[in-house]
Structure formats: C-alpha cells, structure tokens
C-alpha cells in the first residue's frame, strides 16, 4: 500500500528556503512529501497540526513550546534556527505613536491567538512593564491582514519578522519604531507524534536533508540572488538576514530552551 505524502509546512519566508532546497535534492528524491506555505504563521500551523492537516513543520519556538505544554501531541525534533528572531515593531505611517516606549495601551494586530505575533507582544510588554488585556488584540490572519487593519485604522501596532516586512517599510506602508528580539532560538522543527512514531525513518531523512541545506546556505553560490528573487526582497536585506541568522546541525532539542520559554511566558501572564 502506497503511503500518502507527508504534509510539510512553514511560513512563506526566507527562513524556509532550505526546505525547498532539501525537497529538490537527491536526498529526498524518493520520499513522498508535499510542502504547503502557511501565511497565517504559527497559530495556523498549530491548528493544522492538531487537526492532522499538517505532519511536520518549521515553526516558531515559543508558540510550539506553549502548545505542547497545553497538551498538543507534537514533538520538537530540534532547533532549526538558533539565532533569535528579529521582530520589527511597526505602526501605521503618521501614527500618534512615535517611540516604542509610548506604545502602552496600543491596539495590537496579531495573526491569531497563541501565534508568535501574539506571544511576542507579551514579551515586549514584560520588558516595558506594561499590562495587556485581551481586548487590545486585533486578529488579522496574516501580514496582508495587518496591512489592511492599519489602513482601516483598526490597529496601532504589529510585530513581524523585520527582514520580510522591509519592502512594506520602504513603500511607506509600515513605519518601524524598533526591534523586539526573541529571548530564545527562533525556529524549531516539529512533528505530530503519530507521524514521528509511524514514519520515523522518513521524518529523519527529511530533517537531515533540511538541516544540511540550512547549514550550507551561507556558502551556497548564488544564494542571495535566489532568496531575493523568490521572496521579493532586495539583496542588501537578504545579506543582512544571512549575516544575523544561524542554523543548527542535527541535534536533540535542549530542554532548557523549553523551560526558558515557559518561564518567560508565565512571567508575562500568558495562561
């Protein structure tokens, strides 16, 4: 009996370029696996993992750790990107907010509750000693939704990876006030438990191929041009991203990372 293809996913961003390299490589030539972009980010992927609509993902560390702690039957195979995520702090052009320190009480656009953009807002609030309430959050679905919420005057603040949003800043759609750096490694590779136990060899081969492509990305000829073209970024932005991004060799997830995430979210009041 032919096995169905493994369903892989991640945000349609430069971080996941190595997944596409891996799936096109000889190492994965005989594997049945399909990639599907997840523009809704971590919250969307967690929902699809729970519904068994995705099997293996590249996903933000904090949201995944939090969901697993709440009982999601998923295992983190390993850290994928060890460098922290650089979340840009964005407001609409002409906003009354002119400094990041003035954002207390702002209406915050998030992709979904329990998403990375939701959780990092709590990290930001903790650093500034702000109190957040649920009615401050405006669910917008994805980056396009954030653009629309700003244009409609429905939100005051949005946090998203700063390199991917650079074209919106250059176009005057967003105004950037600063950067909120995640206090842990950015991305992990996570798999539904049922898939991990039932298709262990395939999962391992995909992870090996992805990690090999990732750690070799900095030395890949033409990488800057290929990433810039695929993700509609300018070359200086891609070079800046590569200079500040570190991928990890194949290794087990360090439990101290999960502990740090949960401790931080608990301090921030994330239930």
Describe the fold and architecture.
With 271 residues, the chain is an alpha/beta fold. It folds into 2 domains: 6-83 and 185-267, Periplasmic binding protein-like II (D-Maltodextrin-Binding Protein, domain 2, 3-Layer(aba) Sandwich), CATH 3.40.190.10; 86-181, D-Maltodextrin-Binding Protein, domain 2 (3-Layer(aba) Sandwich), CATH 3.40.190. It is built from 11 helices and 10 strands. A 5-stranded mixed β-sheet has the order 2-1-3-10-4, sandwiched between helices. Helix 3 (61-69) packs across helix 11. It starts with 5 loop residues before the first strand and ends with a helix. The mean pLDDT is 93.
Write the layout of secondary structure elements.
Blueprint: E1 6-10, H1 17-23, E2 33-37, H2 41-50, E3 56-60, H3 61-69, E4 74-81, E5 86-91, E6 108-110, H4 116-128, E7 137-139, H5 143-151, E8 157-161, H6 166-170, E9 175-181, E10 187-192, H7 193-198, H8 200-215, H9 223-231, H10 235-243, H11 255-267
Parallel strand pairs: 1-2, 1-3, 6-7, 6-8
Antiparallel strand pairs: 3-10, 4-10, 5-8, 5-9
Helix pairs in contact: 1-8, 3-11, 9-10
Please give a handful of descriptors for the protein shown.
alpha/beta; D-Maltodextrin-Binding Protein, domain 2; 2 domains; five-stranded mixed β-sheet
């Amino acid at each position: 009996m032919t096995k169905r293809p493994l369903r892989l996913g991640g945000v349609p961003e430069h971080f996941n370029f190595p997944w596409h390299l891996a799936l096109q490589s000889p190492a994965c030539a005989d594997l049945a696996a399909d990639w599907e972009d997840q523009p809704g980010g971590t919250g969307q992927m967690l929902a699809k993992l729970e519904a068994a609509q995705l099997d293996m993902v590249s996903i933000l560390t904090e949201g995944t750790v939090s969901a697993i702690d709440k009982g999601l039957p998923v295992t983190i195979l390993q850290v994928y990107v060890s460098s922290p995520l650089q979340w840009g702090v964005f407001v609409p052009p002409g906003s009354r907010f002119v400094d990041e320190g003035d954002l207390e009480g702002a209406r915050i656009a998030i992709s979904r509750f329990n998403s990375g953009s939701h959780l990092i807002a709590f990290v930001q609030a903790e650093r500034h000693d702000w109190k957040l309430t649920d009615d401050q959050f405006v669910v917008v679905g994805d980056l396009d939704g954030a653009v629309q919420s700003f244009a409609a005057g429905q939100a005051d603040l949005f946090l998203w990876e700063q390199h991917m949003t650079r074209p919106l800043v250059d176009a005057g759609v967003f105004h950037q006030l600063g950067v909120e750096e995640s206090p842990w490694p950015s991305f992990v590779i996570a798999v539904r438990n049922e898939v991990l136990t039932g298709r262990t060899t395939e999962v391992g081969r995909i992870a090996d191929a992805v990690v090999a492509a990732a750690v070799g990305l900095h030395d890949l000829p033409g990488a800057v041009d290929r990433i810039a073209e695929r993700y509609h970024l300018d070359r200086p932005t891609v070079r800046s991203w590569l200079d500040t991004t570190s991928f990890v060799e194949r290794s087990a997830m360090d439990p101290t990372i999960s502990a740090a995430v949960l401790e931080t979210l608990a301090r921030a009041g994330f239930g």
